[in-house]
């Protein structure tokens, strides 16, 4: 999972500080997700999937399909 969030960030030409700001957290905290030092909370996974236009399953490595699933209204 962790290489995927790093790769998506790099593919988007963003740095860790920019993604951390979008998530409302510190760059250091975000960096620990990319290195695998800390597990990524579900709420953050959902935000990252929405931000990058993919699915949480893709971030978790459960699929190689980057296209997100159709969203449901809640």
Description of the structure:
It is globular, with a radius of gyration of 12 Å. Helix 2 (16-23) crosses helix 3 (27-35). It has a single domain (2-60), classed as lambda repressor-like DNA-binding domains (434 Repressor (Amino-terminal Domain), Orthogonal Bundle). The protein has 74 residues and is mostly helical. The model has no long low-confidence stretch (mean pLDDT 93). The chain has helices at residues 2-11, 16-23, 27-35, 42-52, 56-60.
Write the layout of secondary structure elements.
Blueprint: H1 2-11, H2 16-23, H3 27-35, H4 42-52, H5 56-60
Helix pairs in contact: 2-3
State the end-to-end CA separation.
26 Å
The CATH topology is what? 434 Repressor (Amino-terminal Domain)
Helix/strand/pairing class, anyone? mainly alpha
Number of domains: 1
């Amino acid at each position: 999972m962790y290489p995927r969030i790093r790769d998506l960030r790099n593919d988007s030409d963003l740095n860790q500080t920019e993604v951390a700001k979008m998530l409302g957290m510190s760059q250091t905290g975000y960096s620990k997700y990319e290195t695998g030092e800390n597990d990524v909370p579900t709420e953050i996974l959902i935000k990252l999937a929405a931000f990058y236009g993919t699915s949480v399953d893709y971030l978790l490595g459960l699929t190689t399909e980057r296209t997100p699933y159709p969203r449901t209204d809640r």
